[in-house]
């Protein structure tokens, strides 16, 4: 539940020099980040429950979102994996 090391290597295209150093490994990713100090055990518990909810959907469309085709305007149709945890990590 830590940020993958590829995001911390300056030679990686995924590296961001502006990323908060307090969130570098071995710090746990916090999907419920609110700027407050939280116990690691609480972070792990929340993350596992949250990911279970996000992964336990009925259809591929609920998981991945609406189909986007070239030439069409994108609609608001994000899937569960895009809205969270993906966006949560940007906030963190």
UniProtKB/TrEMBL annotation:
InterPro entries from the UniProt entry: Di-copper_centre_dom_sf (IPR008922), Tyrosinase/Hemocyanin (IPR050316)
Compositional bias per record (Polar residues), positions renumbered to this chain: 75-92
Annotated spans, Disordered: 73-92
Taxonomic superkingdom: Eukaryota
SUPFAM superfamilies attached to this UniProt entry: Di-copper centre-containing domain
Gene3D superfamilies (alphabetical): Di-copper center containing domain from catechol oxidase
Protein name: Uncharacterized protein
Higher taxonomy: Eukaryota, Viridiplantae, Streptophyta, Embryophyta, Tracheophyta
């Amino acid at each position: 539940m830590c940020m993958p090391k590829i995001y911390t290597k300056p030679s990686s295209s995924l590296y961001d020099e502006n990323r908060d150093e307090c969130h570098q490994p071995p710090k746990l990713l916090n999907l419920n980040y609110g700027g407050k100090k939280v116990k690691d055990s609480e972070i792990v518990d929340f993350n596992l429950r949250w990911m279970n909810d996000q992964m336990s959907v009925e259809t591929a469309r609920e998981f991945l979102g609406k189909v986007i085709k070239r030439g069409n305007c994108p609609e608001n149709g994000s899937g569960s994996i895009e809205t969270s945890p993906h966006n949560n990590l940007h906030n963190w």
